[in-house]
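$ fold --in a.seq
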Amino acid sequence: MMGGGNMQQLARQAQKLQQQMQKMQEEIEAREFEASAGGGMATAKVNGKKELISIEIKPEAVDPDDVEMLQDLIVAAVNEALRQAGEAMEQGMGKMTGGLGMPGLF
């Protein structure tokens, strides 16, 4: 049976880990991730909260006869920026939980 001191130490460690994870999450949420598609014709910027901040479209990408291509460029750029933000969060959380024997917790 575990003694009370060991349980208290474990609880303190868990609380410290929770605080570190919260801080890391806040830092990632404040970061910005940018990705482009079509050789830079469309560029999307998202934050770590996976919110779209801005989108830039080069004038030469706008072809009234090929709106579908422009739509595809925008979707590709946004999805890549969101993927980068998600990957940063997973990596950060993985560093925190890796030593706990809880892979995939986040």
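$ fold --in b.seq
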Amino acid sequence: MSLSFSERILFEDNHLLLVNKLASELVQGDKTGDECLLDQARAYLKWKYNKPGEAFVGLVHRIDRPVSGVLLLAKTSKALSRLTIQLKNHDWQKVYLAAVKNAPPKTADSLTHFLAKNEKQNKSYVVKADTKNAKEARLSYKLREKSDQYFLLEVILYTGRHHQIRAQLAAIGCPIKGDLKYGFKRSNPDGSISLHAWKVTFTHPVSKEEITVTAPPPAGQPWQFFNTL
């Protein structure tokens, strides 16, 4: 059993498992055949609890492969169904950190755009509201800090659209560091982008307590340039 997975567990009880996803780590298996976080979680639970069969792991939400941060998994079907309803009703608060090269137009702002996904390109575009299949995307951001090279934005997500933060920040002239797809000039060495799912607040599906879980950003650039992290 890989120790690195267990070291990345942020919270665990009988119903939930929250893990700090690595940048460039696949959440769910795909055609690449690369090991995914879900498989690691199943192996961890089978090992920890000495389960004879396959352990149940429910995927409540997703994080893009190049993005790091807190991922919430359900250990029971009851927890999965209740958390899915919460997410659908926008009852969670999800806070991200994004490192960008350009200063945002304002130090704090709320953004509303309409996004349309291009399936072939796996990319979302800002479009007019009456565009076919356009979906409203809302977030707010504030400037937390500035280093010599980058600006650190704290982003609160209100809707969960495809590549939403990436597309909306690019639309205001602030593509995320390493995000070639949305206009940043150079990639990060490991293929990641400097976007981190930092904090999630939700209601526990069984105890009904409010829970906030925070995931430390990755070591190295650009995160070590910021004093507030």
